[in-house]
Write a structure and sequence with these properties.
Elements lengths: L10 E6 L13 H10 L4 E4 L2 E2 L19 E8 L12 E4 L22 H10 L3 E4 L9 H4 L7 E6 H6 L6 H9 L5 E5 L13 E6 L4 H10 L2 E4 L4 E6 L3 E16 L4 E15 L8 E7 L5 E3 L3 E2 L3
Parallel strand pairs: 1-2, 2-4, 3-4, 6-7, 7-8
Antiparallel strand pairs: 1-9, 4-5, 5-6, 9-10, 10-15, 11-12, 12-13, 12-14, 14-15, 14-16
The structure holds zinc ion (2 copies).
One zinc ion (ZN) binds next to loops.
């Protein structure tokens, strides 16, 4: 992914890409979910209710809750088929058309659809959606599972609801296994909010666009022109010949990770910029950046592919 978007024209828009409402098993009406996110300072959300027959295959209509400073993307959490461990798949699809044809999945324990997860995610991507593999740790996904989603744009590397409710919120390992296989995936942090627990306002994406519109946000997501966060901000990432430079909000540690065990870091007090040598990454096809603040909150860049 390029890093030039950090300094390109436009603004970073804060959004939550994975949210539920009374359209499926969430506690709040869609209008109230949107109201709360806007009141919390978000620029947009995607309501991604569970796309199964028991909820009438919802692509929850949030268009009435768009206004001058808040927008929404249409989406759903898709379910079909089974992962290696025998559970149904969970896939976040953002930017679905309102008339996206449902699969044959009447409920969460129905595993007999003739359409596979590969077919369904290919179909959703072809219809225009940004596809993310949801909560890989909670789903106990294997690498073979991940290979079933060639249409994936991203992996959910932080799911706040899972972090709060079952301490399985992290997805970096699954994503890195796929990066090491050459898959050019990006990384999203989300809430997966249902509002029955403190599962909201914990993980988000910061998407750089010139306009806060669904089309602009969707295009930037697909282009990887965003970073993810649970607190800190990343202001700029500059690739130099021998170093990577990172500007951020006050941090305790700035880490660069690459293939295998490759990593390098700088630690300090109230770091707002850092320069890290790239020699440790001489054979890594990709690197990424993590910023950690004094409270342990994190911001994650998308993978940056190196041209060795
Ligand atoms: Zn899920
Ligand atoms: Zn969910």
């Amino acid at each position: 992914m390029p890093t030039s978007f950090f300094t390109a024209a436009g603004k970073f828009r804060r959004g939550n890409l994975h949210t539920h409402s009374t359209g499926s098993d969430g506690q709040l009406e869609p209008a109230e979910v949107c109201r709360r996110y806007q009141a919390e300072g978000y620029d947009f959300i995607a309501l991604t209710d569970h796309f199964v027959g028991q909820y009438d295959y919802p692509i929850t209509d949030t268009t009435p809750f768009r206004n001058g400073s808040f927008t929404t993307l249409l989406g759903a959490e898709l379910h079909i088929d089974t992962t290696d461990n025998g559970d149904i798949w969970h896939i976040v699809a953002v930017g679905l058309p309102a008339d996206f044809a449902p699969p044959d999945v009447p409920h969460f324990r129905y595993f007999d659809s003739t359409e596979t997860v590969t077919d369904l995610t290919n179909r959703a991507a072809k219809a225009g959606a940004f596809i993310a593999i949801a909560h890989p740790h909670w789903s106990a996904l294997t690498e073979a599972d991940a290979r079933c989603i060639p249409a994936a744009h991203a992996v959910e590397v932080y799911n706040h609801g899972c972090a709060i409710e079952n301490d399985r919120g992290d997805g970096h390992l699954s994503c890195e296994h796929m990066l090491n296989e050459g898959r050019r995936l990006t990384m999203i942090a989300t809430d997966d909010a249902h509002f029955a627990t403190p599962d909201h306002f914990g993980g988000w994406v910061m998407v750089k666009t010139t306009e806060n519109t669904p089309d602009a946000l969707l295009a930037a997501l697909k282009a990887g022109e965003y970073y993810s966060s649970t607190g800190p901000e990343i202001h700029d990432i500059r690739m130099k010949r021998l170093t990577i430079e990172v500007d951020c909000s006050k941090a305790q540690t700035i880490v660069v990770q690459g293939r295998g065990a490759a990593s390098s870091k700088i630690c300090g007090t109230d770091l707002t910029t850092g320069s890290i040598a790239l020699d440790r990454f001489a054979v890594s096809p990709w690197i990424r950046v993590t910023v950690i603040d004094h409270a342990g909150k994190r911001a994650w860049s998308n993978p940056i592919w190196l041209d060795h």
